[in-house]
Amino acid sequence: MINRLKRYYQAGGCSPAQGQQGLTLIECLVAIIIVGLVSSAIAPALVISVATRVQSQKAEQALELAQSEIDRVRLLVERSEANTFNLPPSAPITGTNPDTRVAEVAGPAYGAPVAAPTTAFQTRTANLNGNQFAVQVYRTPGRFVGSVPVTFGMGVRVYDYDAVLNGTGNLDKNPAALRMVNGVGQRGRRPLVALYTNVTVGEGGTSLCQYIQHINATASVPTGCN
C-alpha cells in the first residue's frame, strides 16, 4: 500500500501538503476588495442613522426644556408672584393684536449665551443629560397693571448650543425639520423646538375686566368693572 502511494505521488498526484494550502495572494486581494465595497455601501447609511438618532434625541430634550420654561412662568402667574422683573424680556412687537403675533418675533442674535438675558434676542445656556442648548425666551408687551401681568403672549425657542456661536444677524425662527440627516442638518441654524402660548391671570378679582379691556378697549365690560 505504501509503495503504491509513493508511485502515485511520483507520477504527479497531489501531495498532502498541497491539499492543505491556504488562500493565494490573488484570492486575498479579491476578498479585501469585496469587503471594501460592502463597507463603502454601508457606511453612509450608518452615518445617517447615527446623525438622525442624535437629532431626534436632542429634539426630545429641547421640547422638555421649552415646556418646563412655560410651566415655570405659568406657576409664577398662578401664585401671583409674576411681575415685570421675573418674567421673560419683552419683545418689541407693535401694531394690531401683538399678543397673537408672538411667533413673528425674530430669532435670537448670534453670540454666546448669557446667564441672565435682558433682551428678547439673547439666549441662555441650558444643559440636559449631557447635551447643551441655547434657549430664547421672550414675551409680548401684553397688559400689566403696574408691574403685575394680566395677559401676555410667550415664546420659547431652543437651539443647539453651537448654532448661536458664529454668524451675524439673527438665527432662523422656524423650527428645523426632523428628517433624516447626515450631519447637523437644519439644527445648525434653526431651533430644534419652538413653542408659543398665551398666559392670562385668572384669579384676580378684576382679571376678566382687564382682559376684556385688553382685547378691545371700547368693548362693554360686566357691571362692577372699573
Entry summary:
The chain has four helices and five strands. It has helices at residues 2-10, 16-19, 25-78, 207-215; strands at 124-128, 131-139, 143-145, 148-160, 193-200.
> Tell me, what's the shape?
elongated
Overall pLDDT level: 77
* Helical run tally: 4
Q: Give the structural class.
A: alpha+beta
Largest sheet: 5 strands, antiparallel
Model regions low in confidence, pLDDT < 50 over at least 5 residues: none
Rg (C-alpha, Å): 33 Å
Order of helices and strands: HHHEEEEEH
C-alpha end-to-end distance: 124 Å
Q: What's the domain count?
A: 1
How would you explain this protein's 3D organization?
The protein has 226 residues and is an alpha+beta fold. It has one domain (38-215). It has 4 helices and 5 strands, in the order H-H-H-E-E-E-E-E-H. It has helices at 2-10, 16-19, 25-78, 207-215; strands at 124-128, 131-139, 143-145, 148-160, 193-200. Strands 1, 2, 3, 4 and 5 form a 5-stranded antiparallel sheet that branches. Strand 3 (143-145) and strand 4 (148-160) form a beta hairpin. The termini are far apart. The mean pLDDT is 77.
Characteristic key phrases:
4 helices, 226 residues, 34% helix, elongated, alpha+beta, 5-stranded antiparallel beta sheet, 17% strand
Write the layout of secondary structure elements.
Elements: H1 2-10, H2 16-19, H3 25-78, E1 124-128, E2 131-139, E3 143-145, E4 148-160, E5 193-200, H4 207-215
Antiparallel strand pairs: 1-2, 2-4, 3-4, 4-5
